Amino acid sequence: MKKELMIVDGYNMIGAWPDLVKLKNQDEMEEARDRLLHQLSNYQRYEGIEIQVVFDAQFVPGIQTSFQKYLVTVIFTKEGETADSYIERIVEEKNNRLTQVTVATSDMAEQWLVFSKGALRKSANELYRDLKRSNQAIKADTVSFHSKTVRRNTPWNPQQLTTLEELRENLSKKE
Hints:
Blueprint: E1 3-9, H1 10-14, H2 18-25, H3 29-47, E2 50-55, E3 65-69, E4 72-76, H4 83-94, E5 99-104, H5 108-116, E6 120-122, H6 124-150, H7 158-174
Helix pairs in contact: 2-3, 3-6
Protein backbone atom coordinates (compact mmCIF):
# COMPACT_ATOMS: atom_id res chain seq x y z
CA MET A 1 0.00 0.00 0.00
CA LYS A 2 1.32 3.43 -0.95
CA LYS A 3 2.04 6.12 1.58
CA GLU A 4 -0.21 9.13 0.96
CA LEU A 5 1.27 12.62 0.99
CA MET A 6 -0.87 15.70 0.48
CA ILE A 7 0.84 18.96 -0.39
CA VAL A 8 -1.40 21.96 0.27
CA ASP A 9 -0.95 25.42 -1.25
CA GLY A 10 -1.65 27.30 1.99
CA TYR A 11 -2.51 30.75 0.69
CA ASN A 12 -4.70 29.18 -2.00
CA MET A 13 -6.83 27.53 0.72
CA ILE A 14 -6.93 30.75 2.76
CA GLY A 15 -8.25 32.55 -0.32
CA ALA A 16 -10.97 29.94 -0.91
CA TRP A 17 -12.33 28.70 2.44
CA PRO A 18 -15.08 31.02 3.78
CA ASP A 19 -13.94 31.21 7.41
CA LEU A 20 -10.33 31.82 6.37
CA VAL A 21 -11.26 34.42 3.73
CA LYS A 22 -13.03 36.37 6.46
CA LEU A 23 -9.89 36.38 8.61
CA LYS A 24 -7.72 37.34 5.63
CA ASN A 25 -10.02 40.27 4.86
CA GLN A 26 -9.67 41.44 8.47
CA ASP A 27 -5.85 41.39 8.13
CA GLU A 28 -5.66 38.40 10.47
CA MET A 29 -3.36 36.35 8.23
CA GLU A 30 -1.50 34.71 11.12
CA GLU A 31 -4.80 33.54 12.62
CA ALA A 32 -5.96 32.30 9.19
CA ARG A 33 -2.75 30.26 8.78
CA ASP A 34 -3.12 28.87 12.29
CA ARG A 35 -6.74 27.80 11.74
CA LEU A 36 -5.85 26.21 8.42
CA LEU A 37 -3.11 24.17 10.09
CA HIS A 38 -5.39 23.16 12.96
CA GLN A 39 -8.14 21.99 10.60
CA LEU A 40 -5.69 20.10 8.41
CA SER A 41 -4.18 18.46 11.50
CA ASN A 42 -7.51 16.91 12.44
CA TYR A 43 -8.07 15.83 8.83
CA GLN A 44 -4.57 14.35 8.63
CA ARG A 45 -5.05 12.26 11.75
CA TYR A 46 -8.50 11.02 10.80
CA GLU A 47 -7.57 10.15 7.20
CA GLY A 48 -4.18 8.68 8.11
CA ILE A 49 -2.20 10.73 5.60
CA GLU A 50 0.81 13.04 5.80
CA ILE A 51 0.17 16.71 5.03
CA GLN A 52 2.66 19.41 4.10
CA VAL A 53 1.42 22.99 3.82
CA VAL A 54 3.43 25.33 1.61
CA PHE A 55 3.30 29.11 1.97
CA ASP A 56 4.93 31.58 -0.43
CA ALA A 57 7.78 33.59 0.99
CA GLN A 58 8.25 35.05 -2.47
CA PHE A 59 8.07 38.65 -1.30
CA VAL A 60 9.55 38.09 2.14
CA PRO A 61 13.31 38.25 2.59
CA GLY A 62 14.93 35.26 4.21
CA ILE A 63 15.74 31.62 3.84
CA GLN A 64 13.42 28.65 3.44
CA THR A 65 11.87 27.52 6.71
CA SER A 66 10.28 24.21 7.62
CA PHE A 67 8.72 23.24 10.96
CA GLN A 68 5.96 21.16 12.53
CA LYS A 69 2.78 22.67 13.94
CA TYR A 70 -0.13 20.50 15.13
CA LEU A 71 1.84 17.58 13.58
CA VAL A 72 1.52 19.17 10.13
CA THR A 73 4.70 20.06 8.24
CA VAL A 74 4.73 23.79 7.44
CA ILE A 75 7.04 25.12 4.74
CA PHE A 76 7.76 28.75 3.89
CA THR A 77 9.56 28.87 0.55
CA LYS A 78 12.84 30.71 0.15
CA GLU A 79 12.96 34.30 -1.04
CA GLY A 80 12.01 34.58 -4.71
CA GLU A 81 10.47 31.09 -4.86
CA THR A 82 6.74 30.61 -5.38
CA ALA A 83 4.74 27.92 -3.64
CA ASP A 84 3.94 26.52 -7.10
CA SER A 85 7.59 26.01 -8.05
CA TYR A 86 8.33 24.42 -4.67
CA ILE A 87 5.32 22.10 -5.01
CA GLU A 88 6.39 21.07 -8.52
CA ARG A 89 9.87 20.19 -7.23
CA ILE A 90 8.49 18.15 -4.33
CA VAL A 91 6.08 16.27 -6.63
CA GLU A 92 9.03 15.24 -8.81
CA GLU A 93 11.02 14.11 -5.74
CA LYS A 94 8.31 12.36 -3.74
CA ASN A 95 5.81 10.89 -6.23
CA ASN A 96 6.97 7.31 -6.86
CA ARG A 97 5.93 3.67 -6.47
CA LEU A 98 5.90 3.98 -2.69
CA THR A 99 4.30 7.40 -2.30
CA GLN A 100 1.14 8.82 -3.86
CA VAL A 101 1.25 12.60 -3.85
CA THR A 102 -1.92 14.69 -3.95
CA VAL A 103 -1.67 18.45 -4.47
CA ALA A 104 -4.43 20.65 -3.07
CA THR A 105 -4.73 23.88 -5.05
CA SER A 106 -7.34 25.65 -7.14
CA ASP A 107 -4.72 26.99 -9.54
CA MET A 108 -5.72 25.18 -12.76
CA ALA A 109 -2.30 25.54 -14.39
CA GLU A 110 -0.67 24.01 -11.31
CA GLN A 111 -3.25 21.21 -11.22
CA TRP A 112 -2.49 20.25 -14.83
CA LEU A 113 1.26 20.42 -14.26
CA VAL A 114 1.29 18.16 -11.18
CA PHE A 115 -1.23 15.81 -12.80
CA SER A 116 1.11 15.44 -15.79
CA LYS A 117 3.85 14.40 -13.33
CA GLY A 118 1.70 11.61 -11.89
CA ALA A 119 0.34 13.36 -8.81
CA LEU A 120 -3.34 13.59 -7.98
CA ARG A 121 -4.99 16.97 -7.65
CA LYS A 122 -7.67 18.32 -5.38
CA SER A 123 -9.24 21.77 -5.55
CA ALA A 124 -9.62 23.99 -2.50
CA ASN A 125 -13.38 23.39 -2.52
CA GLU A 126 -12.96 19.62 -2.76
CA LEU A 127 -10.56 19.61 0.19
CA TYR A 128 -12.91 21.88 2.15
CA ARG A 129 -15.83 19.46 1.56
CA ASP A 130 -13.66 16.46 2.48
CA LEU A 131 -12.54 18.23 5.63
CA LYS A 132 -16.15 19.00 6.63
CA ARG A 133 -17.12 15.36 5.97
CA SER A 134 -14.26 14.16 8.14
CA ASN A 135 -15.28 16.54 10.93
CA GLN A 136 -18.83 15.17 10.80
CA ALA A 137 -17.51 11.61 10.90
CA ILE A 138 -15.29 12.47 13.88
CA LYS A 139 -18.30 13.93 15.72
CA ALA A 140 -20.43 10.88 14.89
CA ASP A 141 -17.67 8.55 16.08
CA THR A 142 -17.35 10.56 19.29
CA VAL A 143 -21.10 10.43 19.97
CA SER A 144 -21.18 6.71 19.19
CA PHE A 145 -18.21 6.05 21.47
CA HIS A 146 -19.72 8.18 24.23
CA SER A 147 -23.10 6.46 24.06
CA LYS A 148 -21.42 3.05 24.23
CA THR A 149 -19.40 4.00 27.29
CA VAL A 150 -22.36 5.56 29.13
CA ARG A 151 -24.40 2.37 29.13
CA ARG A 152 -24.29 0.38 32.30
CA ASN A 153 -23.43 -3.26 32.26
CA THR A 154 -26.52 -4.92 33.64
CA PRO A 155 -27.43 -8.56 34.07
CA TRP A 156 -31.03 -7.78 33.06
CA ASN A 157 -32.38 -8.14 29.55
CA PRO A 158 -34.77 -5.48 28.14
CA GLN A 159 -37.92 -7.49 28.98
CA GLN A 160 -36.83 -7.93 32.58
CA LEU A 161 -36.05 -4.23 32.84
CA THR A 162 -39.54 -3.39 31.56
CA THR A 163 -41.10 -5.71 34.15
CA LEU A 164 -39.01 -4.16 36.92
CA GLU A 165 -40.01 -0.66 35.76
CA GLU A 166 -43.70 -1.65 35.88
CA LEU A 167 -43.28 -3.07 39.37
CA ARG A 168 -41.56 0.12 40.52
CA GLU A 169 -44.39 2.24 39.09
CA ASN A 170 -47.02 0.05 40.81
CA LEU A 171 -45.22 0.37 44.12
CA SER A 172 -44.97 4.15 43.81
CA LYS A 173 -48.73 4.36 43.07
CA LYS A 174 -49.57 2.51 46.28
CA GLU A 175 -47.70 5.01 48.42
